[in-house]
Amino acid sequence: MTVPAPLGLLAELTHACPLHCAYCSNPLELVARTDELSTSDWLAVIAAAAALGVAQVHLSGGEPLRRADLPEIAAGCADRGVYTNLITSGVGLSAERLAALPVDHAQLSVQDADPAGAARISGTRAWDHKLAAARVVKAAGLPLTVNVVLHRHNIDRVDTLVALAERMGADRLELAHTQYYGWAQRNRSWLLPTAAQVRAADAAVAGAARRLAGRMEVLYVSPDLHTGTPKPCMGGWGRQQLTVAPNGDVLPCPVARVLPDLPVDNVRDRPLPAIWYDSQGFNRFRGTDWMAPPCRGCPRREVDFGGCRCQAYQFTGDAGATDPVCRLSPHRPLVDAVLATAVLATAVPAVDAPDVAPEYRRRF
Ligand code: SF4
Ligand code: FES
After folding, report:
1. What is the pTM of this model?
2. Fewest Cβ atoms closer than 10 Å to its Cβ: which of 61, 168, 240, 291?
């Protein structure tokens, strides 16, 4: 098959973060600061990515503002003419810092519609920082996306979350159901919404999208566990996106380290084009030849690419299996069993629900 050039690079500059969100999809084993790529390493990665054809770089983490050299890295993106998106918690984003960052867009995370709920899920009192960060982004004239990860403890407040995004002046609101990887997978039984909660949220989001059409884009990432429709994860393995982890590991998706047999190359050892085009890791699930039934022969195989490899591995132990969220997968009962636990868990009144135990929060 002809391998297309990548479109987007997720640059995970650091795993360090002032927030400790229970839904974080960063790996349980976070990269130590002493193992992070240097400034010159990152500038070389960005130059190589742009030469490969990457048009968008997402400066992410952790919290990218934790890197003192963020202005130089962002300038490296601007020099190469790539569209640069700053993905931030907002903590530490002052007008002065933003003025030194030649980025094209900012994506700000919001954890809940009120300070107490946000502090509960993130383990940090960051509410005022977020409101201030939104003002700073808008004052700088940058487009602002507000991103909210939905889970059992905030999903009933979609309307208030939408109102908050409007007050913040968001150009775009992403309401994305939790992806159960890393810390989120560990906390899955605490985070999973019930089917009734999801139905109510679906309706609330659809209503908001209609009301705000032409003023604020409302993007909804459906819960694939509930819908039974696999997501085209990363737009297809090794098809559009690559991730460079803080230590220079190059991954087809941010979570791919969970796959035990996947060879992972590092930018310190191998040029980025060779990793993208020729590495075993990127070629492992490219295209459709690797698929087994029911994906093989399914009319949706070039729509969802068999779903998510990491989710398939987490549920079945086989990264080459059909994503078990799919209604056609023989492993679908494993997903239904997990969803049944959400119903049981919400039998506990929310006010008495145990908070996330400290060992279940990322701290870094
Ligand atoms: Fe997608 Fe495979 Fe399910 Fe078909 S069988 S819908 S290709 S995951
Ligand atoms: Fe790794 Fe979906 S998260 S392929």
Report:
1. 0.94
2. 240
